[in-house]
Amino acid sequence: MTDPNQPPADGRDDVPPSQPAGSQPYGSQPYGAPAGQPAGAVPPQQPYAATPGAPLTAEQDKQWASFAHLGGILWFLPSLIIWLVFKDRGRLTDQEAKEALNWQITWIIAWVASQIIGVIIGSFTFGIGWLLFSLLIPWALYIVNLVFSILGFVRVNSGGTYRYPINFRFIK
């Protein structure tokens, strides 16, 4: 009887005595490693090369451009994501997503300004200014954003372009 804490007498530490010589136990080959490669070896990595996506067709370009405007209903994230993903794949999508994103940034600045003014005026007028600038004006701003976003969606989806009436061009 041999001691289980001692290595086998023949010097083969990695193969149990019940397996034939030259075979490896189940699980010793790393997943995805080429056959015959040692268990601890890392295969050589290919350098990552980013390839641009295929250009959008005219219909896809119009679709994503109009969705950039409609996404304004959910603040700036849909417009930002569409612009970042499709800006190099379609001219109309690049132009309209930038326009929609600039509008969303302008709208958020106006919304934050109304909140700040509401806090300042509310502290002097005992709540009337807060009610006006922190509740009513932000809702009015959201309705304006909703209307302009839908107008932009409809105009671009029908084949035109859309420029918001008040828009600071942060992204050129």
UniProtKB/TrEMBL annotation:
It is found in: Membrane. It comes from the Bacteria. Residues 29-50 have a biased composition (Low complexity). The chain crosses the membrane at residues 64-86, 107-133, 139-156. It is a multi-pass membrane protein. Signal peptide: none annotated. InterPro entries: MamF_MmsF. The keyword Transmembrane applies. Keywords: Membrane, Transmembrane, Transmembrane helix. Its main location: membrane. Residues 1-54 are annotated as: Disordered. This is DUF4870 domain-containing protein.
